[in-house]
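Supplementary Text 2. Reproducibility record for the structural model of the 331-residue chain.

All settings were left at their defaults, and a single model was retained for analysis rather than an ensemble. We include the record here because the model underlies the residue-level annotations in Supplementary Table 4.
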Amino acid sequence: MPRSDRLTRGPGGSLVVEVRPQCLYRFPRGRRFPDAVARSRNGVYERFLHVSGRPVLTRAWEGNRGEVAIAAMPAPAAWLAGGDREPASRAELEGAIERIRHALGVDDDMRPFMRRFRSHPLLRPLIRRMPGYRVKRTPNAWEAFAWAVTEQLIESTRAAMIQRRIVRNWGPVLSFEGRARPLADVPCAATVAGLAPAELAALDLAPKRALALIKAAREVASGRCDPSDPAGDRRLRAISEIGPWTMQVLALNGRGDFDSLPAGDLAYVKLVGHLAELGRRATVAEVEEYFLPYEPYRGLAGRFMLAGLGAALKEQPKLAYHPANPEFEAA
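Retained model, structure tokens:
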């Protein structure tokens, strides 16, 4: 952790760090999480996750002076529904804090991006309107990859339903005393690797993608590749049904790569068709060409545009047809 952070011990063996964002930051108050693995209410973000297999409860909130406090505590054994009850160590609690920092984007330095595009005719008004905007990310790369597979070629609401079913069936659960709804974590790669494709297909995941997700989980669980490390991308891309869009989503949502643009997403196909005045939806190649001048912030610029202009371009399917897109599957 940076030396400027203030790290203290809290109740229940917890660790609390206070982070001061490097530039204006918008805390996720009341944000909805479609996969239901995190929640934000009454000004507190809450997420249950695992670090090195140890269960950790994390919370984050905004302080009075603009700082963001992130707390991590070993999940009490009485709250766990089976699984590993070994308490998390200090190192694992610190690891959990790092993951939440990543997910919330509190350490993102947006100043170089803002300086570069402060006179840009399209981005300038969006940046001024959303100065604290951050790209939504997952606490770990495996989660981003798994969810990208479930989102291929289907409506976002349907994908979220599949994700919730996966979590409900195989995700570790943390039950709070006196609370009706528990928190659950995304099942780890080892858990998914042990499933049969039919089990995932029964939750409405397409059979081909169910098989692809299990094959990828086996690669990750065996240690042959790590989704957080681009060096393992070749092994993941070798799996049928895993194409460029999935890997681009992994890089942006899982690794925090601001230059990764999921160009095959229908939202961008519509956006570029509109902005470039094509009179039609753009092709994937045209989307990539349009965003070339924004390098190395193509993904970040794209998210700003979608957040600011997306109301008129709302998409349902996640990918658009293009013959060069290997993830396209004819209906």
